Amino acid sequence: MYNESFGSSIKRGFMGLPIAIRTIIGLNLIIYLVQVFGQLFGGSAFSNMLISAFAFYPELLTTVFQPWRLFTYMFLHAGAWHLVFNMLWLWWMGRAVEETLGPRSFTVIYLGSGIGGALLDVFFAQFLGINYVIGASGAVFGIMVAFAVLYPTMPIHLFLLPPIEARYVVAGLIALNILALGGDSNVAHIVHLGGAGIGYLLMKARQGGFNLGGVIQPIENIWLELKGAYKKKESAPKNKNMYSVSDVEIIEETEQTELDDILEKISEKGYDALTKEEKKKLFELSKKN
Q1: 125/183 Cα distance (integer angstroms)
Q2: Where are the transmembrane segments (predicted)?
């Protein structure tokens, strides 16, 4: 009988996650470890430096002249439980969303919700108070709303409660955040609500025919070109008539990108929406895989 170690089991489960969720969780874990070890060896000065440099500060001039905060704040967390709850919700509801929409559309909803929630906070913070904001909650709320749009009647099993449909669970969480507005807690409720709102708008845009994945495609193309140029520079083929390993990897990445595009189009518009060339390409790539 095969006995798998606990570490191997964790690794296998993690690698089995869809690529976007796996990348997001991995980045959050790595950055949180940097926070923890920085706190251990650098004390509060290190934590204060991270917050002052990378947390979101909902003030207009800061947002305009330090735009990276709109992105970096999503990867900082106030503590272990803050991180765990965000990543659990992301894993719990996000997996079905990514498997349905594809990694590109999923990433656009995740980042768009996080950025949109922060931008909304710029306006409301003038009335509710300006404080540093950290955490992935706004982005996760966008994914939760996407799940509720895709699977509104899916039963959700919460602790000590009977199964509740996903739309009511998500609506209840949104209602709790509305009721908590103006309270004394350090929770960024406006960011949560903004993330939920952006997630809903992006899902409605997708349902209207807008290709969410197309938003991130140019960035991915630039990354692949840079990566391909680097690999070619690092390991040129010895024989000009032979492919190098890097060339094969680049070809495989390009083909995988084409396959992802076709599958995403099928998910959004159905198989019949494919052109004759796309159907032929899908058949060819399917044989390779």
Answers
A1: 13
A2: 12-33, 40-58, 70-93, 105-124, 130-151
Three-state DSSP class for residue 67:
coil
Same domain, 46 and 116: yes
Instruction: Return the active site residues.
Output: 137, 192
Contacts for 8 with CB less than 8 Å, ≥ 6 apart: none
- pLDDT in 10s for each residue of the chain, 289 residues: 456 677 777 777 778 888 999 999 999 999 999 999 998 888 888 988 999 999 999 999 999 999 999 999 999 999 999 999 999 999 999 999 999 999 999 999 999 999 999 999 999 988 888 899 999 999 999 999 999 999 999 999 888 889 999 999 999 999 999 999 877 677 899 999 999 999 999 999 999 999 998 888 888 788 778 877 666 665 555 454 444 444 444 455 666 777 777 777 777 777 777 787 777 777 777 665 5
Q: Quick one: 173 and 37 in the same domain? A: yes
DSSP SS3 for 56: strand
